Amino acid sequence: MSGEASGADFNSLVFTCLGDAALSVSTPRARALLAGLRDTPLPGVLEVVPALMRLTVLFDPLRLDAGQLEAALRGRLAGLREQPDGPGAGGAARTLVVPVVFGGAGGPDLEWCAAHAGLTGEAFVSALCAQKLEVAFLGFTPGFAFLTGLPPSLRMPRLDAPRGRVPAGSVALGGPWAGVYPSGTPGGWRIVGHTDLSLFDLSRPEPVPWRAGDHVQFRAVMARSAR
Length: 227
Fold this sequence. Notes:
Elements lengths: L2 E2 L8 E5 L4 E5 L3 H10 L5 E7 L2 E6 L6 H13 L16 E8 L7 H8 L3 H9 L3 E6 L6 E4 L14 E4 L3 E5 L2 E4 L4 E3 L2 E5 L20 E6 L7
Parallel strand pairs: 6-14
Antiparallel strand pairs: 1-2, 2-3, 3-5, 4-5, 6-13, 7-8, 7-14, 9-12, 10-11, 10-13
Keywords: ATP-binding, Hydrolase, Nucleotide-binding
Organism: Deinococcus aquaticus
Protein name: Allophanate hydrolase subunit 1
């Protein structure tokens, strides 16, 4: 297909065909475009899969071709504000509150992160829970959401060496992202807490509770007493 780039990074735009029934759209305004496609779907579009500054649009080739779809998507992009995606760029969204027990055995890196930010542990938790984060995209493992919206003061460097196994439910920070591990996997992010919220369950009608564009807020809770 075609590609173009202007002097402003937020105007860069590249379309790439993926076979005869999918079109990749690379643009810093991917999240805003995704919100528009959900609010007002395009005829012939079957599914839109978001990634970081990229959408993969699956379409019915019997109803339209890639050139027609590209023209329609260019029209949608032309109607968006000339700015890159930021918090809230996904438009109207669901909000998921994630209860988290911070620190202790389930959050071994909390004190390190607090010291790195120049805060007490309590102040760090309060600052993190005050942020309205947003699901930028899903990836890494089923149910794992890359949460954007952390201010620079709460962005943490990744571990020098990843842990061999991070327990399911671990709430972690890595670079500009926050995330919650849906299952036990290796991981190199700083673990600050733990949640009992199930993030991937194939027995549910919707196995994953969130999708790109949803808002997420952490809420500090007390650990359950052992009985």
